[in-house]
Write a sequence for this structure.
């Protein structure tokens, strides 16, 4: 309990206005004593408090961190690498804006789960009509279908970099991910997901070894370098789609519920969501910088191997190994989280049992949907698909669908009838609406450009 109290105090600012009045939990304070004893005992207490805070952050790591890191999946890595190869550091400022959007979106998702005890799919079913519920779940399934395939294609591409054919690794990987969910509890699966997240540290290492131009990096982080070209808009929507993916909101809310979190634990849950979003976006920035330093300005990538080999001149012979390790960890993490998000959504919308801690006979629809997605993704990934085009294409689709899911999320978190005092405050409501409107605008521009291209007018 002490760990929670200390972390609550540390996070009493920031997003507080966005959601709920401060819930004050008072820790007992030692009675005042003379200056002598206080001076002697203060440093050990300070160190103990620091250790408790570190322990609290470790303890809270969960759905928010897993969901955000899953966004840095195979499709995400391909998209970020293409951003670096096409526009060098030109997309860094845009990614800062996307980071702010992700923090807000993930916070709203976990807040819904913490205060209602229900996932996003269940809340949409209760608060909207059957048709609107079908629209939300249908959009998620449409976006996730290609994404699940891309995750297993990413696993195959990672081993292909090491000279191992995909047919030898994709089926065993599918069985392992399936068994992780089917035969484990939520807590156990979550710990495995968090361990998988360690693979992302391969990219900061690759970035440092690439010796980027730090002055240019800093300038592009704070100065807008947005371009009106169709290629830039296409990539910008893909960046939104891979960073603020619809499945992440469904998984984050459902994960909070599945782990049994309560409203009084909200500040810890919020810390997990915010820190997870920031960490995931920092990893995204390192991928862009690493690729930009090696092959910036050369155009879009054609394969995962091309991205890895491009790093070799600056990162050494270990570049392919670093890239392969990061791609494998990212693909394996998202290979489980993406189908789980769809299973949660369908189970919640249907009002049936849904939990990783349940067995097949207890939650047949939930685990059946998960099994079907794993099988479909693995089978299609074994076909001769164009991995990079598939990965970026799924992110563009995610970017087009994201505004629809974000509207549901915004409406739900605005409703005081649902969240009471934890509903969005006025300033947060304005900021969140701006985020959703911005994502919708980018998606609309891309859609119009695509239609005009089909008509020969682009």
């Amino acid at each position: 309990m002490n760990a929670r109290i200390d972390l609550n105090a540390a996070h009493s600012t920031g997003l507080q206005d966005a959601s709920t009045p401060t819930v004050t939990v008072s820790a007992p304070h030692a009675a005042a004593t003379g200056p002598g004893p206080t001076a002697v005992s203060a440093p050990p207490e300070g160190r103990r408090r620091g250790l408790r805070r570190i322990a609290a952050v470790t303890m809270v790591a969960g759905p928010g961190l897993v969901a955000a890191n899953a966004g840095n999946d195979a499709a995400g890595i391909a998209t970020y690498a293409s951003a670096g190869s096409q526009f060098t550091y030109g997309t860094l400022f845009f990614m800062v804006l996307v980071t702010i959007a992700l923090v807000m979106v993930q916070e709203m998702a976990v807040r819904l789960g913490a205060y209602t005890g229900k996932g996003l799919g269940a809340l949409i079913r209760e608060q909207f009509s059957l048709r609107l519920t079908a629209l939300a779940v249908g959009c998620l399934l449409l976006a996730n279908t290609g994404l699940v395939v891309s995750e297993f294609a990413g696993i195959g591409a990672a081993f292909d970099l090491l000279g191992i054919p995909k047919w030898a690794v994709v089926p065993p990987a599918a069985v392992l991910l399936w068994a992780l969910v089917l035969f484990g509890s939520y807590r156990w699966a979550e710990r495995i997901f968090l361990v998988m997240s360690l693979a992302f540290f391969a990219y900061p290492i690759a970035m440092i070894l690439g010796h980027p131009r730090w002055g240019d990096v800093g300038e592009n982080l704070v100065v807008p370098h947005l371009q009106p070209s169709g290629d830039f808009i296409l990539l910008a929507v893909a960046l939104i789609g891979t960073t603020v993916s619809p499945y992440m909101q469904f998984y984050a809310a459902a994960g909070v519920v599945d782990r049994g979190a309560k409203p009084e634990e909200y500040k810890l849950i919020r810390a997990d969501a915010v820190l997870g979003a920031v960490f995931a976006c920092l990893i995204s920035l390192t991928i862009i910088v690493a690729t930009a330093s090696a092959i910036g300005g050369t155009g879009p990538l054609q394969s995962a191997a091309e991205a890895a080999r491009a790093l070799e001149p600056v990162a050494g012979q270990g570049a392919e190994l670093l890239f392969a390790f990061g791609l494998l960890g990212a693909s394996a993490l998202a290979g489980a989280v993406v189908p789980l998000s769809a299973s949660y959504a369908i189970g919640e919308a249907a009002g049936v049992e849904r939990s990783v801690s349940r067995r097949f006979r207890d939650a047949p629809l939930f685990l059946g949907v998960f099994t079907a997605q794993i099988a479909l993704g693995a089978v299609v990934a074994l076909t001769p698909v164009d991995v990079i085009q598939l990965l970026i294409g799924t992110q563009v689709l995610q970017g087009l669908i994201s505004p629809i899911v974000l509207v549901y999320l915004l409406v739900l978190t605005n409703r005081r009838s649902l969240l009471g005092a934890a509903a969005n405050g006025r300033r947060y409501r304005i900021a969140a609406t701006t985020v959703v409107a911005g994502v919708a605008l980018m998606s609309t521009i891309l859609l119009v450009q695509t239609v005009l291209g089909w008509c020969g007018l682009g």
Summary: Confidence is low (pLDDT under 50) at residues 1-43, 54-59. DSSP finds 21 helices and no strands in the chain. The longest helix spans residues 319-350.
